[in-house]
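ugh ok fine here u go
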Amino acid sequence: MAEYFLFDIAESLLGKLASYVYDEASRAYDLCEDVQGIKDTLSIVKGVLLDAEEKKEQKHGLREWLRQIQNVCLDAEDVLDGFECHNLTSHF
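structure:
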């Protein structure tokens, strides 16, 4: 669904954080607590995003807020993708 694009990005971020590569990397760099905190926060954010997506047509400020959150999520996804690529290539 196009209207849930931001939710899908957040869902993708959560999936990547939950992946084996991130679990291994977080242990290697002693980031387990940080990664778990991010996972917990993203779970909460997903619920808020779903609510916001449903109400965005009625509130102009909410649309702008969602656009900014979308940009942040896309940037975070890029960082996580780079982190995953680095970890994959460092094993060869």
